C-alpha cells in the first residue's frame, strides 16, 4: 500500500470516528425523532409515538412524544378537553415540558391525573395551515370543548388564505398508528432518523443558510380584499365548531437602543382581529402584557441565553404570560 493511499485511508478513519463522536453528542444536544407526513390527518405531520425529542440549539428541552405523535405529558386524555392548535411556538420544544403554556394551563386548572388540555401543535403549522386542518382536527378530536389557535403573524397573501380554505378531507387512518404498519423501507428511514441525529442537524443548517440568503416576499395586499377573504375563512371555521374558538396572538418584539421593548404588530392584524370579532371568535392579544412584564422585570418573551433576546421562539417567560392570559379567559367563561 502506497504512502498516499495509506494516508487517505487514515483520513477516512479519522473522519468516520469524528462523525460518530459528533453523532453521539447530538443524542444529548439535538435529536429529532422520526416523523411522518399525514396529509389527511388532524395535522400535516406527526412524530413517532413514545420517542424522545432533544432540542439544544435554542434553549434546551427533552420531550417525550405521546401515542398520537404530539408533545404532551404522559397522561390519559380526559373525556372532555381543550384543544390547542399551533406551530412550533406552541409545541414548546425549546423549554422544559412543564413550562409550556398548554401544560401550565392544564396543571393550574385541573388537579387530577388526566390531560384536560391537549396540544397538537405541529412544526410549520402557521395560521393558513391551522385553517386548512381545522375541520380535520375537530373530526379527529370530537370531544373538544374549547379550541385555541396560535397566531404569530397575520400577513399572508390572498392566495395563501384562499388555498387554506380548501380544507383537507380527514382520513381516520392517517394517524401515528401508521408507524406500526410501515414498509421495510419506511422502517429503515425511521431507524436512520432516530439513530443518526446529525443528519437532521445538517439538514436544518442547510435550510437556515438558504432562508438567510433569500429575502422574504413582501406581499402587497389589498386590504379590502384581504378583509373579505380573511372574514370568509373565519366564517368557515366558525361554522365547523359551535363552541368557543380563541385566537392567541403573540406579536414579535424588539429591543430598542434606549433599552425599551416594542411590539411589532402584523400589518394586517387589525383586519384579522375585526374578522374574528365579526364571527364570534375571541382574541387574546399578548402584546400589551409582553410590554408590561418587560417594564416590570426586564424579561423578554422570546429568545434564550444561547440565541438572541427578542428573537426566535417563545421562551419560558413568554409561555407563562400566555398561560396566565388563557387561564384568566377560561375562568371568565366558566364563571
Rounded to the nearest angstrom, the distance between the terminal CA atoms is 83 Å
> Structural class of the helix and strand makeup?
alpha/beta
The helix fraction, in percent, is 40-55%
Question: What is the H/E string?
Answer: HEEEEEEHHEHEHHHHEEEHEHH
The protein's oligomeric status is single chain
Number of H/I helices:
11
Radius of gyration: 22 Å
Provide mean pLDDT, rounded: 91
Number of domains: 2
The unreliable regions are 212-216
Order the strands across the largest sheet as they lie in space.
7-6-8-9-12
Give the CATH level 1 class of the largest domain. Alpha Beta
CATH architecture of the largest domain: 3-Layer(aba) Sandwich
Annotated CATH homologous superfamily of the largest domain: SGNH hydrolase
- Tell the overall outline: globular
Main pleated-sheet profile:
5 strands, parallel
Question: What is the CATH fold-level name of the largest domain?
Answer: Rossmann fold
* Tally of strands: 12
Give a brief description.
With 335 residues, this protein is an alpha/beta fold. The chain has 11 helices and 12 strands. The model is unreliable at 212-216 (pLDDT under 50).
Question: How does this model look, in words?
Answer:
The protein is of the alpha/beta class and 335 residues long. It has two domains: 1-29; 32-334, SGNH hydrolase (Rossmann fold, 3-Layer(aba) Sandwich), CATH 3.40.50. The chain is built from eleven helices and twelve strands. The protein has helices at 3-29, 88-91, 101-109, 127-140, 158-164, 184-195, 197-213, 223-239, 269-278, 287-297, 316-334; strands at 30-31, 35-37, 45-47, 52-55, 61-64, 76-84, 114-119, 144-151, 245-249, 252-255, 261-264, 282-285. The strands form four sheets. The chain has a five-stranded parallel β-sheet with strand order 7-6-8-9-12, with helices on both faces. A three-stranded antiparallel β-sheet has the order 1-4-5. A hairpin with a 5-residue loop joins strand 10 (252-255) and strand 11 (261-264). Helix 4 (127-140) packs parallel to helix 5 (158-164). The chain starts with a helix and ends with a helix. Residues 212-216 have low confidence and may be disordered.
Amino acid at each position: 500500500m502506497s504512502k498516499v493511499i495509506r494516508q487517505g485511508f487514515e483520513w477516512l478513519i479519522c473522519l468516520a470516528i469524528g462523525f460518530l463522536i459528533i453523532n453521539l453528542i447530538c443524542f444529548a444536544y439535538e435529536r429529532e425523532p422520526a416523523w411522518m407526513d399525514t396529509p389527511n390527518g388532524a395535522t400535516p405531520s406527526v412524530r413517532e409515538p413514545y420517542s424522545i425529542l432533544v432540542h439544544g440549539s435554542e434553549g434546551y428541552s427533552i420531550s417525550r412524544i405521546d401515542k398520537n405523535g404530539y408533545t404532551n405529558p404522559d397522561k390519559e386524555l380526559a373525556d372532555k378537553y381543550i384543544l390547542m392548535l399551533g406551530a412550533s411556538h406552541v409545541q414548546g420544544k425549546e423549554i422544559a415540558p412543564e413550562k409550556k403554556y398548554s401544560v401550565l394551563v392544564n396543571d393550574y386548572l385541573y388537579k387530577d391525573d388526566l390531560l384536560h388540555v391537549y396540544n397538537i401543535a405541529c412544526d410549520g403549522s402557521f395560521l393558513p395551515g391551522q385553517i386548512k386542518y381545522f375541520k380535520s382536527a375537530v373530526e379527529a378530536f370530537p370531544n373538544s370543548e374549547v379550541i385555541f389557535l396560535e397566531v404569530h403573524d397575520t400577513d399572508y397573501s390572498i392566495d395563501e388564505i384562499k388555498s387554506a380554505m380548501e380544507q383537507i378531507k380527514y382520513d381516520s387512518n392517517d394517524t401515528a398508528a401508521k408507524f406500526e404498519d410501515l414498509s421495510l423501507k419506511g422502517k429503515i428511514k425511521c431507524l436512520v432518523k432516530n439513530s443518526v441525529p446529525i443528519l437532521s442537524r445538517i439538514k436544518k443548517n442547510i435550510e437556515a443558510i438558504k432562508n438567510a440568503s433569500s429575502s422574504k416576499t413582501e406581499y402587497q395586499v389589498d386590504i379590502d380584499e384581504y378583509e373579505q377573504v380573511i372574514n370568509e375563512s373565519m366564517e368557515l371555521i366558525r361554522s365547523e365548531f359551535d363552541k368557543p374558538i380563541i385566537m392567541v396572538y403573540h406579536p414579535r418584539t424588539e429591543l430598542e437602543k434606549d433599552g425599551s421593548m416594542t411590539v411589532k404588530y402584523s400589518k394586517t392584524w387589525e383586519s384579522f382581529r375585526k374578522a374574528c370579532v365579526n364571527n364570534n371568535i375571541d382574541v387574546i392579544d399578548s402584546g400589551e402584557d409582553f410590554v408590561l412584564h418587560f417594564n416590570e422585570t426586564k424579561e423578554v418573551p422570546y429568545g434564550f441565553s444561547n440565541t438572541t433576546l427578542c428573537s426566535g421562539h417563545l421562551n419560558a417567560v413568554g409561555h407563562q404570560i400566555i398561560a396566565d392570559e388563557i387561564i384568566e379567559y377560561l375562568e371568565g367563561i366558566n364563571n
